[in-house]
Amino acid sequence: EKSEIEELRDKFRGLLKERDELKQILEIEENSKNLREIVYEKDAEISPINHGEFQEEIFQQMVQISNQREYEEFLKAYRLIGRTIFPTKSKRVEMKFETFYRAKYHESHYIILDQAKRGNQLRIFKHTLPHFIPLGEIENDYLNKDVDKFVNIVDDYLQAYVARREEVKLMRQKTGVTNLTSNNAYDLVEFSVDLEESIVDISLTYSNLRSSAPTDVVITQRFEDIENSVTRRKRLKKIEKYFLDMSLIKAFNELFVDL
Fold this sequence. Notes:
This protein is of the alpha+beta class.
């Protein structure tokens, strides 16, 4: 008899085979034709939807078609790849994207594809992606030309967003920094560190939303001359590279933990 480990290896090889077969389906043009065969010809607006409500709706659909234990196990294991694509009951196509940070699952995001009434082209029917991801631009550039690239680019944006967000959360939880500010996209992060005789202001800009690394870092040291009501500032360019080369919390720890 096969050992449990051998059985798991066989199952994993099977999943890899399934993954490779899926990639073959998602080839340029050919995959678009395959997807068009199962989309429902109905005119609809492209619209973002409530993430929680839609996730519950998708879960219920998956429960109805996942009564067999083998299929449930397949879905759980295939989740490791981070992406699944399958037809829905309404004959549309659903793309599911899992997000990760530090080997931990976070939220899932969904894109539902439909077929445009004219031109036989795929289009986005609904989605749960954050508004700052340029989904319309990605759709126009790749959806009907190279679906595999479309999926990869969307995944890059989602993984980078979750990584930036979780790094900010870790900073707030682990460092004691209370003045950290950021926006919804986490593409601008600012905070200050109080030293004995000065304050260090740190500003990180993430111009590339497909990356979790900042594109620009500015670190300035402030010296307050209270008697003369004067503030002197000094740019600390030599240490800015720490935040360009390391994660947010690691760079912070390297520079400030032992001060």
